[in-house]
Design a protein that fits this description.
Blueprint lengths: L3 H28 L11 E8 L4 E2 L8 E11 L2 E10 L3 E4 L4 E2 L13 E4 L25 H24 L13 H14 L4 H18 L7 H10 L1 H14 L8 H11 L6
Antiparallel strand pairs: 1-4, 2-6, 3-4, 5-7
Helix pairs in contact: 1-2, 3-4, 3-7, 4-6
């Protein structure tokens, strides 16, 4: 019950961080520069043309457009072309003028495939080189404002993390697993007043052997040798014999008297 406020604060902080991250993503998409087809920039156009397979005219020096077929996919009655082009002059061009038929002749009967290429320089530019004083770089974008806004949002992202880190956190106490004597005592106390399951009977026998083997510092690699050594010990041998007779009898589940005798005999050794 004490962890619910901390879980709510954690969930609120995570929602704030996710919201700010989404804002950053939207701003980045908005400010991301969009490429336009200009001289020296390759453009793309996908067209579907019925009929036989076409090819692109090889580029020769002086052509206004260089066209190539990047991908060709056959379809029913024709082909789907992924045309790539690069212009060497601004203006409007028609890609069908750069396609050849199977006889390597200019293809006829093709639909118009217009593309428009923008100029790098404005129309009123004279081409003269003029001396100008040094000026700051102008990328014709909102880069400075965009980066300033991103830095502000980045700072806001740190606020919930800062306050979340200052809140007290509940300590998790890891308890150590029970020891062999503790487990044996718990099962014997249960057997003294209640019936045992088959699994609990097996656990009592195993824990008793492990308890005496640990106390007498006997090797545990081979169970037969350990059991022989325990039978030679006066107290351990008696306990092992009593437990074997108890657990292997027909009414082993309800022999609470044997469990009480073992508890009384072991007493302090089991942690009481």
């Amino acid at each position: 019950m004490t962890n619910r406020p901390n879980n709510r604060r954690h969930a609120t902080g995570m929602l704030i961080v996710a919201g700010l991250a989404l804002c950053l993503l939207l701003i980045g998409v908005f400010l991301w520069p969009r490429n336009r087809i200009t001289i020296g920039v390759e453009g793309q156009q996908a067209v579907t043309i019925a009929g036989s397979r076409l090819s692109a005219i090889p580029y020769t020096h002086g052509d206004a457009l260089a066209v190539r077929i990047a991908k060709l996919e056959p379809i029913s009655g024709g082909f789907r072309y992924d045309l790539r082009y690069m212009a060497y002059g601004p203006g409007r061009h028609d890609l069908r003028e750069y396609l050849l038929d199977e006889q390597l002749q200019p293809a006829s009967g093709l639909p118009e495939m217009p593309v428009t290429v923008a100029a790098l320089l404005p129309k009123d530019d004279s081409g003269k080189l003029l001396e100008t004083p040094p000026t700051p770089i102008d990328l014709h974008t909102n880069y400075r404002w965009g980066m300033g806004l991103l830095w502000c949002l980045w700072g806001l992202l740190l606020l919930p993390l800062f306050f979340y880190g200052r809140k007290p956190r509940s300590r998790v106490v890891v308890s150590s697993p029970p020891t062999i004597p503790e487990r044996l005592r718990t099962l014997l106390e249960h057997a003294a007043h209640s019936d045992l399951t088959v699994e609990q009977q097996t656990d009592i026998e195993k824990l008793l052997l492990a308890f005496w083997a640990e106390r007498l510092q006997l090797p545990k690699e081979r169970l037969i040798e350990t059991l022989d050594e325990l039978r030679k010990h006066p107290t351990a041998g008696e306990h092992v014999s009593r437990v074997e007779k108890w657990l292997h009898s027909r009414d082993a589940r309800s022999h609470g008297s044997v469990a009480r005798e073992l508890l009384a005999s072991l007493g302090r050794d089991l942690g009481k």
